[in-house]
Amino acid sequence: MAIRLALVGLGKIARDQHLPAIASDGRFELVAVASRNAALDDVENVATLEALLAGGIDFDAVVLCTPPQVRHRLARLALEAGKHVMLEKPPGATLSEIEDLRHLAEVHGRTLQATWHSRYAPDVEPDRAWLARRPVRSAHISWKEDVRVWHPGQDWIWEPGGLGVFDPGINALSIATRILPRPFFLTEATLHTPENRQSPIQAELTFVDTAGAPITAEFDFLQTGPQSWDIEVDTAGGRLKVSHGGAKLWIDGVLTHEASEAEYPGLYDRFAQLIGAGASDVDVGPLRHVADAFLLGRRLAAPAFVD
Ligand code: NAP
Fold first, then answer.
1. Is 89 a catalytic site residue?
2. In sequence order, which residues have a C-beta less than 8 Å from that of residue 124 and are 6 or more positions away?
3. Which end of the chain is least crowded, N or C, by CB within 10 Å?
4. Looking at residue 171, what is its pLDDT?
5. pLDDT value at residue 56
6. CB within 8 A of 197, min separation 6: which ones?
7. Which of the residues in the chain have pLDDT under 50?
8. Which of 18, 36, 62, 65 is the best mutation target for the ligand 1 pocket, counting ligand atoms within 8 Å of the beta carbon and taking the most?
9. Concatenated DSSP letters for the chain?
């Protein structure tokens, strides 16, 4: 029997990625949507998860596609009601609330999946395998996009807990923590926050790995023209570049691997496997680096941002 899903927060990512991925995977059936301002044909529609849980609709798992600030409260409700839970990235607004959810999932014997969709980009595992065999000397992350194009009207991104430019930047960190062979730690950060917003619009970060190799990152929400979602790694055995958010792999300047994107089908495949195995997957590594940047970062004021 299919795993019956309820999706909460029918916004951009739910429509762009979750609905097609669910529709293409016979192990799942979407039975309900809880969204205050949106509805979907052919499923039960309610405004809130509370209404869904009170309404007597049968379902097994909840997919949380809301902004991160409200994720903990919703995940708690779902786990306490005995549902499995998939968390969009970032898994929550703080590290501690995710620990609470991890514990709650254990207590209730339910699956909790903290998703990092960029890790399912086609070149992430090939990158990881290539780098595992070559000593890393340095790495540079360039994650630069135009917030006006990619996040129009998403006010939550600028609120506390919305992460600002770290909302896309955490995707880069999710890839870096997967492909780089050694753990790394933040040593310096500069965060530029518009005077009329709560969250940074640009950030520069410096990390060092456990063997002393430097790793730098530039996150920019004001990029116009060509956008970049690239990580370059210099090793003793050549130079790797992963571009387009993990879709293209270059070795010493030559495109060596490219495949079509299937991140969300990969996430749902993993969710089905975890539920089948009675397991959870809750890696907070990328969010820990962001929290470190907020702890250690030098704050600079940036000009007011007008959407
Ligand atoms: P979005 O377009 O703003 O959609 C989120 C939906 O959540 C809203 O439409 C809203 O639906 C609901 N919601 C519930 N409580 C809310 C609140 N307090 N404030 C605002 N909305 C609330 O955002 P999104 O782009 O889909 O992003 C959602 C999550 O997915 C974020 O964590 C983001 O990082 C992640 N994500 C986004 C993308 C992307 O390309 N956009 C890619 C990967 C991951 P109702 O008003 O109908 O309740």
1. yes
2. 118, 175, 178, 179, 242, 246
3. N
4. 98
5. 86
6. 158, 164, 304, 305
7. none
8. 65
9. -PEEEEEE--SHHIIIIIHHHHHT-TTEEEEEEE-SS---TTSEEES-HHHHHHTT---SEEEE-S-GGGHHHHHHHHHHTT-EEEEPSS--SSHHHHHHHHHHHHHHT--EEE--GGGGSTTHHHHHHHHHTS-EEEEEEEEE-BHHHHSTT-GGGGSTTS-TTHHHHHHHHHHHHHHSSS-EEEEEEEEEEETT-SS-SEEEEEEEETTS-EEEEEEESB--SS-EEEEEEEETTEEEEEETTTTEEEETTEEEEE----HHHHHHHHHHHHHHHT--B---HHHHHHHHHHHHPEEEEEPPP--
Q: What does the pLDDT read at residue 58?
A: 95
pLDDT at residue 44 in the model:
97
Ligand 1 center from residue 12 Cα (angstroms): 6
- Among 12, 16, 307, the mutation site with the greatest number of ligand 1 atoms within 8 A of its Cβ is 12
Per-residue pLDDT at 261: 86
Q: Is-above-0.90 flag for pTM? A: yes
Residue pLDDT, tens place only, 253-269: 999 999 888 999 999 99
Cα 305–156–262 angle (5° rounding)?
Answer: 105
Q: Longest Cα pair distance anywhere in the chain, in angstroms? A: 60
Residue carrying the six token digits 């309900």: 32
